Amino acid sequence: MVAMPEKQRDIVLVGAGIMSATFAAMLKELRPDMRVEIFEALDSAAQESTDAWNNAGTGHAALCELNYTPQNADGSVGIARALAVNTQYDLSRQFWAFMVRKGAIGPPESFIHDVPHISFVWGDDNVAFLRKRFEAMSAHHCFRGMEYSEDRSVLERWMPLVMEGRSPSQRVAATRMATGTDVDYGELTRQLLAHVQKLPDVAISYSHRVTDLQRTADGGWQVSVRDVNSGAVRTVSTSAVFLGAGGGALSLLQRSGIKEGKGFGGFPVSGIFLRCDDEAIVDRHLGKVYGKASVGAPPMSVPHLDTRFIDGKRSLLFGPYAGFSTKFLKHGSYGDLFGSLKNDNLRSMLAVGRDNFDLTKYLVGEVLKSKESKYASLREYFPEADPKDWNFIVAGQRVQVIMPDEKRGGKLQFGTEIVSDSEGSLAAVLGASPGASVAVAVMLDVIKRLYGGSLDSWKGAMTEMLPSHGRSIADDAALCESVRADSANALHLATL
Ligand SMILES: Cc1cc2nc3c(=O)[nH]c(=O)nc-3n(C[C@H](O)[C@H](O)[C@H](O)COP(=O)(O)OP(=O)(O)OC[C@H]3O[C@@H](n4cnc5c(N)ncnc54)[C@H](O)[C@@H]3O)c2cc1C
């Protein structure tokens, strides 16, 4: 690690997960002379939510996740949220394709694979919903190629393990998109950081925890950093700060004291996955099969049976089972939740406690679930699963955002929230979903907030990185087809 000379930083990035790695890589493309220093509390990159086994690795493009297509009161299915997520994921693909082509990361098979995305439901009401959803989605060019079937022989071909041993009287249906992906966000992050670390004016300091932030008279920041090994504390100055600290972002946002961060809180939801590495089983399933969420379940806790490609090996993952821990990071402290309670967010936190009884009930149920009932959930998706082939693994911590809300006092938010100051000197990413998949879209928003004044002069570099920049692939079918074919070609992925 080479520390930067004092007073020479344009920006300090806190955390070495997918968000900071994406931000650093994009910034250095837009302004190669940008002086960037990254501080990471752990001894290497991507060990929290971004680690491959700490998340599900779904390239969230709203192809299979039913929570992005709610049923309206009149029975119709809304696809607006699905379209937003779908086109945001496309920006990530365009950026990764650009980075692969310039030789900065890759080969693509080291971090991304074709894995069909399948939505699977049973029961008359759910089948009716899925059909309506299919009709609404497949009418839009962004979801071209989506297939629908209630025919058991087709479903057996798409997902044999899900169908074998299933009651013949159960009415079932599924949709399938062959262009779905599995992504190893941990590997991608390490490759992005290895690339930026080689560039001039970039320093990455591992085992360095940011402990405090103070605004300076010139509008910049003094950042206190503790060397985790020696205990030595130093203060560094910078013009801007990005808090890409995952579950650690809320406490630093609170420390910064910016008024825009007042009233925010966090609610941790931990996750457990089941993992199977037995080749005879793994080789018989290729897909990410997403079902319907239970009542009260946070949207991203819907059960799914997934093919994963990690470290050159294919595995299966099922879950997540939600759990409760007061930690905000897997390597965090049990005091995180209590430490986050402040005078300014008590009202929002209490309001969320009052208004989310279903979530509380769901979490209590999940925490109390025995091993047997966890296997019973697995068998809903893989009826002939044998517990001896599966191991429980602890996934990453999600910290759901609690936002101030004038009417209700506070509301629980399941998406990603960016909080920044009006001066454009600090931005924080809070929340978890759709998360890593939309890191490029999230960073574009952060770039607008921190460097809005430079956007015009960066147009050329931006379009090189993101060919659809400034245009809408949701409105322009030909553009959508051409950028998708182009990123598929660079990333060695399927096209339709
Ligand atoms: C169970 C689960 C399943 C998920 N599934 C998916 C999925 O299928 N697809 C998807 O796209 N997304 C998924 N996500 C979300 C995704 O993993 C996250 O959105 C993403 O990894 C967040 O990246 P990050 O860089 O913001 O945070 P992190 O990866 O958590 O990184 C934050 C880093 O900051 C460091 N840090 C914290 N505090 C400090 C400090 N004070 N000083 C220095 N360093 C600090 C931490 O050590 C950590 O390395 C899932 C998440 C979970 C938990």
List the main descriptive attributes of the protein structure presented here.
496 residues, nine-stranded mixed β-sheet, alpha+beta, 19 strands, single chain, 32% helix
CATH class: Alpha Beta
Share of β-strand residues: 25-35%
Per the CATH scheme, the topology name is FAD/NAD(P)-binding domain
Strand order of the largest sheet: 5-6-4-13-14-15-12-16-17
Q: Which secondary structure elements does this structure contain, and how are they paired or packed?
A:
Blueprint: E1 9-14, H1 18-30, E2 36-39, H2 80-101, E3 112-114, E4 117-122, H3 124-138, E5 147-149, H4 152-158, H5 160-163, E6 172-177, E7 181-183, H6 185-197, E8 202-205, E9 208-215, E10 221-227, E11 233-243, H7 249-256, E12 265-276, H8 279-282, E13 288-290, E14 304-310, E15 313-323, H9 336-339, H10 346-355, H11 357-368, H12 371-381, E16 391-405, E17 409-413, E18 416-420, E19 426-431, H13 439-451, H14 459-465, H15 477-491
Parallel strand pairs: 1-2, 1-11, 2-8, 4-13, 11-19
Antiparallel strand pairs: 3-7, 4-6, 5-6, 9-10, 10-11, 12-15, 12-16, 13-14, 14-15, 16-17, 18-19
Bound molecules: flavin-adenine dinucleotide.
